[in-house]
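Sequence in, structure out. Go.
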Amino acid sequence: MYYKIWSQRYLNEAEKLKNHIKSLKTQYVLTNDVSTADDLQYRITILYEMYLELVHTGKYLQRKYEVMNDA
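Output:
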């Protein structure tokens, strides 16, 4: 099947999201406005959950591909 391609896509998207989260964390550290900081923290939290989901799914698909090729 296409498990390898899917896993690569999931992991690539996770990497993009990781880089975006890094930039948001930088903005969070540099901001002086409390409401902006709260908004950034909320966005970081949501995006980090999405990042973890992408990584776990990508690794799952990668393992699935490896198991299917060993059989």
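Check: Residues 19 and 44 are 11 Å apart (CA to CA). The chain has a mean pLDDT of 95.
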